[in-house]
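[step 3/7] fold_predict: job queued, chain A
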Amino acid sequence: MSRSADPVLLLVGAGHAHLGVIDNWRTQSPPRARTVLAEPLEAMLYSGMVPGWVAGEYRASELSIPLAPLVAQAGTEWVREEVAAINPQARIATFGDGSELRFDVCSIATGGAGRAADVLGADPRLLDIRPLHRFIARWQELREHPPQRGRVAVVGGGAGGVELAFGFRNSSHWDCPEVTLVTGRGGLLPSHPEAVQRRVMRELAHQGIELVIEDASIDGGELCAGTRSLEPIDLIVTALGSGAPQWPRKSGLPVDEDGFIRVDEHQRVTGFSHILAAGDIARRTDRHVPHSGVHAVYSGPVLARNLRRTLAGKPPRRTYSPQFMDFYLLNTCRGESIASYGVAGLQSGWLRRIKDWLDRRWINRFTRPDAR
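[step 4/7] structure written:
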């Protein structure tokens, strides 16, 4: 039990980066501080396994990380509320129920927000991948009552959109769904090597997934790609990248033009060295780090070390450098994965087995009783 004179560390959200912090606390002993986690969800979901879950390769429980045993093992208090606002100068956080907490150090890793309605327009058929727990809950409802046609449009040309297109094409809950992948004019996997783009394009064609390289919009109740209507469509699944929640800007935290919290190479919020942020809610000012689960996972241990030093009154030293982490294994949801790293574009069943092993190893790190 922390003594009253110990500093208070507030962890806002249990995103992938904060799971790394909690894991560090429970495996290497917590720092001399009172750590409080603010997170309303009972369990966190691992985004890397979601397309496989859509395809029926996993049960929902296999990508779920219950928080109760983790926070208990880490000696962390758990407030089951969202943070509605932070006063960075007064160091006060306000929770959704109106209660407040004074903190000495704060770290924010809530993940990003969905942006489908903002980009495309409102439509009851929209199913945004963010926030992940709502995506999971809604798809569980929808799959119990599949439409007769089963026509799905996936909007988003990044790795998330590609894997979701494969996932829905191979879903065991809808009978032979027809899937269209609408990438936007930026094209298919624009940040990946050409060899990977060609490989994915061939796999999309092999699976009968239509590829449309146009910007999507909802006009008059119809989903359009460019000037072309894609109707009839039963479900519009969106993977458009992370949006920023509104509360950091309203709280007076420094944000960029898109609303993401500005942080330096040590994840410190600009102008507030006692507040750190990581994952999809943050944007580095020293270099470009894409918003993805991969980077959030690997930034966790770095964030933990920097928080330890901050709590001890010392400047942080660690920097997450993603140059060796731009390695993706794209799940085709048919027993193979496509590797994207450097100029490579390999595809095989053994790569799928490696992806499954890596994903399960990360989940097991937090869920196995002997994982401490």
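[step 5/7] annotate
The chain is about 30% helix and 25% strand.
The chain has a mean pLDDT of 92.
exit 0
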